[in-house]
Amino acid sequence: MARTHILVIDQGTTSTRSIVFDGEARRVAIAQREFQQHYPEPGRVEHDPEDIWRDVLATAREALEASGIAAADVAGIGITNQRETAVVWDRASGLPIHRAIVWQDRRTADRCHELRTDGVEDLVRERTGLLVDPYFSATKIAWMLDNVSGARARAERGELAFGTIDSFLLWRLTGGAVHATDVTNASRTMLFDIHRHCWDAELCRLLRVPEAMLPSVHDNAHVYGTTAADLFGAAIPVAGMAGDQQAALFGQACFAPGTAKSTYGTGCFILLNTGDQAATSANRLLTTPAYRIDGRTTYALEGSIFVAGAAVKWLRDGIGVITHASQTDDLATRVPDSHGVYMVPAFAGLGAPHWDAEARGAIFGLTLGAGAAHLARAALESVAFQTMDLIRAMAEDGSGRLAMLRVDGGMAANDWLCRFLADMIDAPVERPADLETTARGAAFHAGLATGVWSGLDELERLWSRERCFEPSMAAETRDRLAAGWHDAVRRTLSGNR
Ligand SMILES: Nc1ncnc2c1ncn2[C@@H]1O[C@H](COP(=O)(O)OP(=O)(O)O)[C@@H](O)[C@H]1O
Ligand SMILES: O=P(O)(O)OC[C@H](O)CO
């Protein structure tokens, strides 16, 4: 019997999901686990790679069991992951030498400042499409090599391996046989030349990362290796890998230049397909590979927002204003406006277009009339305002007016947010029938590599829309709200650090 199902491992910032898709890309089963975040000091965020591995195995086995599909009927595994998060492990034992340093971690802000002062930024922009920021992996890797005793010498001798989460999982899934990554994850390290498609020796030297510890880099749809037989009862090919934001673009079937998606998870990442052109931005957006299939690269412009759902999580876990994230929908609907309250959620600095690692969160306009509903509304509004700024930046960079924006991620379940977003970007917001588009994108890659699906036309037909939110706000109201937001951002950037 032909193998027709795909198992996807979606390893996000706050949770790990495994999902089984059938040959029509329909979700058959899902298993999910939240895992522990470590905040050892202000500005530092770490994950224990062993927690991640434990949850990957547990959810993959659970999803397989719930689907009723035998491992032998799975055509391939797709992996998609939180990007940039850096793991360094010992090749002989397979054990990490330090907890993973997460993409939100700001500990290397000073080092990045130094690099900018040394004039490295232009080279980084030109070769990698990125800016010098602690967000990306390179300075996190160097930090581990400099702060774990003996690590740098071991890395230089080739005893240590670096990987983003995809690469670490591939290593574990294949029983230590394969050390590889895909082009989208490689491109987030600040070490990968996105035009020549290889690790850049000069950047490795400047950023002090020995090339001996880097994985080999492949297409997104590619058979990377097979799982160790004892893990699932049958060997399964690992046939697709992609960073979660690029996977979401693919899962949203944004295959044509000019199409865009925005994913609302912990952070929010807007990617605009620019075709085979690695378009550059005059507004501090990133240039990044969207996918590479059969050796052909499609690029995207990316706007990276560090805090989206995390602001809602903070309302829940940080200050206890809500007990469940979805309550923000109802709370925001209950009040006619935010009562002049603006939240600038710079909890982890500000990403595009400001790139200010030192900025800290702020709430403006509090009066005695402000309550929980206004705070919840201000948090949701801040996510839409940030999206608006980045879509305007893309338009200024020459993308033209956006015809529509496809949304996904856990927070896109929020109807109020989607309506407000359509108003603020003044374009329709389309929500797909299944919000698990990140996993779908990874499934598409694994399905292409294993022959479950034949090409992009077929994948486009598998996408379906659940709802479209049309803009209806008066331009004058939009301009007034946007002006209030920009004023709050200005004040945050000038004084709050
Ligand atoms: N209905 C909702 N309204 C607002 N925020 C939500 C809603 N549901 C989930 N969220 C937020 O979305 C995030 C979870 O989305 P998810 O895509 O699972 O994130 P990740 O992949 O980064 O772990 C959480 O930060 C949560 O606060
Ligand atoms: O975990 P998410 O979905 O917020 O995604 C994290 C991004 O990949 C970070 O670049």
UniProtKB/TrEMBL annotation:
Residues 261-449 form the Carbohydrate kinase FGGY C-terminal domain. Glycerol binds at R83, E84, Y135, D244, Q245. Transmembrane segments: none annotated. ADP binds at T13, R17, T266, G309, G410, N414. Residues 6-251 form the Carbohydrate kinase FGGY N-terminal domain. Belongs to the FGGY kinase family. This is Glycerol kinase. The lineage of its organism: Bacteria, Pseudomonadati, Pseudomonadota, Alphaproteobacteria, Sphingomonadales.
